[in-house]
Amino acid sequence: MRRTLAAAVVALSTALTAAPAASATTPTVTAPRAATAGVASADREATAVKARAALATASDLVTGDAAPSDGVRRVDATLALTDLFARLDHLRGPERTAAEALLARPTDGAGDVYGDGYTVRSKKKCAGNFCLHWVPTTADAPPGMTWVNRNLALLNKVWRFEVGKLGYRKPVSDGFVKGRNNGGNGKFDVYLADVGSQGLYGYCAPEYVRKSKPRLATGFCVLDNDFSRDQFSAPPRDSLRVTAAHEFFHAIQFGYDYLDDRWFKESTATWIEERFADDVNDNRSYLVASQVQRPGYSMDVSGVSNFQQYGNWTWWEYLTVRYGAGIVRKVWNGAGQFKGAGRTYSTKALTRVLGSRGGFRAVYNRYVGANVAPGRFYPEGGSWPSAKIGKTWKLTEDQRTASGVATLNHLAARNFAAVPGGSLESGRWRAKITVDGPAGRTSPAAYLTVKNTRGAWVEKAIRLNRDGRGSVVLPFSARKVREAVVSTVNASTRFADCGGGSIYSCGGTPRDEGKKFRVSVKVYKKSR
After folding, report:
1. What is the pLDDT of residues 192-218, one digit of tens each?
2. Cα separation of 365 and 349, whole Å?
3. Most buried among 248, 251, 321, 347, by the most CB within 10 A?
């Protein structure tokens, strides 16, 4: 779900206690039921606590009570609704009623009590693969049939691009659902409503699963009814294009594994905006939270209060530039929970796909290096921020050594820069850079990026031995070298206790946190 920054901060308890009961028209949502079978009472209570937390989070996001931070303009609550859907069977009484209300369609009227429910009879128009629903009056009404038709045409264009051109699976059809709780047929349903008044661009929600395929879900989406400039500060067509591409990709993800890792789902949905609407560049607003600018945060971290999961679409952009857009689909196929798919989680699927491309550690190491100067690698990188330099040393004839230590968690990096002072004018000056990292089994890596005085860049991986130690010697004359950047990299993808509910891959515990890397630089004058 995409959100503007206009949401006000209101206490969560207020949102929950104010929720009336869902109407009798609210559809029954079928969610997985095996999660707590046979577990101890303490485990059941812990599961119930997580379910109530999911309800609180989804309530805050859908009602507009969660305030985005970091200066980023929107946040996605589709995944909060997905988490709630997955835990629905662990809620009882009023909490269950409130959860079903959050997951209801706008056509459920009073049943969708959090602001998206229609209060007048809706209209529907079907074309291609979609049925579009709207109301002719009230604040939810679109500006006219021209806008309705534009939405319908645009959605089918998104389908042709994401399913047709890029080759992703079709969303799971809800044609097997009896009655009118599937929108009237098996086509994919999208609703127009004034969600902009809640600070939202749109969202999708999972709705039904079959017992034979418990990790594949049907779904529907809601888009803002007009994307008014007053609410979104952007051309309505641009907001519609990126929102439709982003949210529909979440619906596609429901057909791979709606329970896969949040960072994976969100970063790839943000990445696909760049593929479908490259000229809009709305996803640049997330770059401040990406590893391009903040390499010290783990790439697979996710959560409601941070935006790394959106900003790290740059990882998929890197892979796309290097290997083509199909690489992302390969990872999704590796993570899928359907016949013939890899049936694993995000990071493991990623390491499998990159295994034949030099290995994850080597590819991630080069990614960190590319982010030092994004303008030389990414097609639009000249408009991006550069990676943060943790420490810069100026070496001179009188100050010939420098050193620093980086403490890195998994899938994170830190950059050090060495700059030759004016006294190092002779072409005989050299710099020996040494990296002393953790043991090789923890996947340490290092990368060197050198910018010369002509503005060109030279780069190479610093080879580390099994003990995590390596060095490189380079010319270091101030007449030729502007700076040398050393990137220390923790490329570990090892996790324990998957399913434990953490904010990292597989909900597991990273095994290689807090690893220390010492970087030392020594300059000397080469003998004649």
Report:
1. 999 998 888 999 999 999 999 999 999
2. 18
3. 248
